[in-house]
Design brief:
Jelly Rolls, binds 2-oxoglutaric acid, 15 strands, 4-stranded antiparallel beta sheet, alpha+beta, single chain, binds fe (ii) ion
């Protein structure tokens, strides 16, 4: 299979539902569950310190630090299995990535609230490639009203079921014009690991650090 475009106004989205064959996705899920030093990070949300409703880890090239929600993450060195998938993702997208954020949603109660991946160190039109392993969860996108001034109605939200082995690519103006989330589910589901490959620009990190000291971006 290959990446196919999804139609969303003022955005650029691509999906390959069968990027990794299921057995490969299962093997990688089991390996990462076991070897990654998963952490539940505290974040500041509306002035209060709370724990993120999921576990995370940050891997990347040396120096690819990432700041969000008041956190400053130093990358762990690439695991061979992660370096291997990075290469496949780079081949499929034609983009280079120097880091990957891993999210582990332990159950239906783990989630990520609406946000945009618009941290300054990612640059103005970041390409973010998101690989799903394990349980199917619904990925939602909704328009940022400020991005569609005078539009009545606003473009419709979009829900995409992300199945094990699928690769979703967001690029261009997607982060500027849309928010995305991974809500809790009402039905019980098993664990899901999501890998979002990113390119952190070293030149923008200093500026990013200064901005985050003042007003941390939130990834709820
Ligand atoms: O788990 C997902 O599919 C979304 C993850 C996400 O949006 C992020 O890590 O910024
Ligand atoms: Fe995101």
């Amino acid at each position: 299979m290959s990446l196919k475009p999804l139609h969303l106004p003022a955005a650029e989205l691509w999906l390959d539902p069968e990027f990794l064959p299921l057995p490969a996705a299962e093997t990688l899920l089991a390996l990462l569950t076991e070897v990654v030093p998963w952490q539940q990070q505290p974040i500041r949300l509306f002035g209060r310190e709370v724990l993120q409703p999921r576990l995370t880890a940050w891997y990347g090239d040396a120096g690819a630090t990432y700041s969000y929600s008041g956190l400053h993450l130093e990358p762990l060195p690439w695991l061979p299995a992660l370096a291997q998938v990075r290469q496949r993702v780079e081949q499929a997208t034609g983009c280079r990535f120097n880091s990957v954020l891993l999210n582990l949603y332990r159950s239906d109660q783990d989630s990520m609230g609406y946000h945009a991946d618009d941290e300054p160190e990612l640059g103005p039109e970041p390409t973010i490639a998101s690989l799903t392993l394990g349980a199917t969860r619904t990925f939602r996108l909704k328009p940022r009203p400020a991005a569609f001034p005078g539009a009545a109605p606003l473009p419709a939200p979009l829900s995409i079921p992300l199945t094990s082995g699928s690769l979703l690519v967001m690029r261009g103006l997607t982060q500027q014009n849309w928010l995305h989330a991974l809500p809790k589910t009402t039905r019980p589901v098993g664990p899901r690991i999501n890998l979002t490959f990113r390119r952190v620009s070293p030149a923008k990190q200093k500026q990013a650090f200064a901005i985050h000291q003042k007003a941390p971006a939130t990834k709820p």
